[in-house]
Amino acid sequence: MADHDPSHWNRYNAKQARRAVRPLLVDALTHAGGGPGRVALDIGCGAGIETRWLLENGWTVHALDADQQSLDALNRTVAPAGTRERLRTSVVDLNDLPCLPTADLVYSGYALPFTDPAHFGAMWRRVREALAPGGVLAVNVFGDHDSWANSGTGTFLAEAQCLSLLDGLQILRFDVEDEDGMAFSGPKHWHVFDIIARRPGPSS
């Protein structure tokens, strides 16, 4: 599993720069609706692929990441005309996540599981608190069958534990990936919960 060495994330984000937008976010927008006049969070934005796509779809985006270099690169690559003023970037540590802006869409792709177990509950409360009434949450959570689960770093949950995180939300999608595959570091067994959920209440 990846450690906290910043150079690892610099290399990872550089390799990610040309991939497509993650399907989980594409699916989430079918539930969240249009972006103009609305706010999205991209927690652990990395190379900024999803952030740029959200901007292109009219969202105001708060892009959060632990790596300042990735955020600097994102700011350099956002076209100024009509989009730059809708981008906010902040350096954050998932283990000490601050209060977040209220958002109509909260997205995090493969980032939240890298929170240490001692801080995961507090991080998750911040994420839930940021979700506006009617807002959509789209995140990945790692399961306890994952080959990184014994690495001593990150949070890995049983399916029942993961479902309990969604108490009070309307679950729109809950897919389980439990199979061998590839990671940036090489072959591994993936156990991932792909989640889309909505906070009850009128959307903004």
Side-by-side strand order of the widest sheet = 3-2-1-4-5-7-6
Annotated CATH architecture: 3-Layer(aba) Sandwich
With helices defined by DSSP (H or I, 4 residues minimum), what is the helix count? 6
Main sheet properties = 7 strands, mixed
How many DSSP E strands?
7
Q: What's the CATH superfamily, by name?
A: Vaccinia Virus protein VP39
Low-confidence stretches: none
Q: Report the sheet-strand fraction.
A: 25-35%
- The percent range for helix content is 25-40%
Order of helices and strands: HHEHEHEEHEHEE
CATH topology (fold) name: Rossmann fold
Structural class category:
alpha/beta
The CATH class is Alpha Beta
What is the radius of gyration? 16 Å
Task: Note the overall shape.
Answer: globular
- Total separate domains: 1
Write the SSE topology.
Elements: H1 6-16, H2 23-32, E1 39-43, H3 49-56, E2 60-65, H4 68-77, E3 87-91, E4 103-108, H5 117-130, E5 131-142, H6 159-164, E6 170-183, E7 186-198
Parallel strand pairs: 1-2, 1-4, 2-3, 4-5
Antiparallel strand pairs: 5-7, 6-7
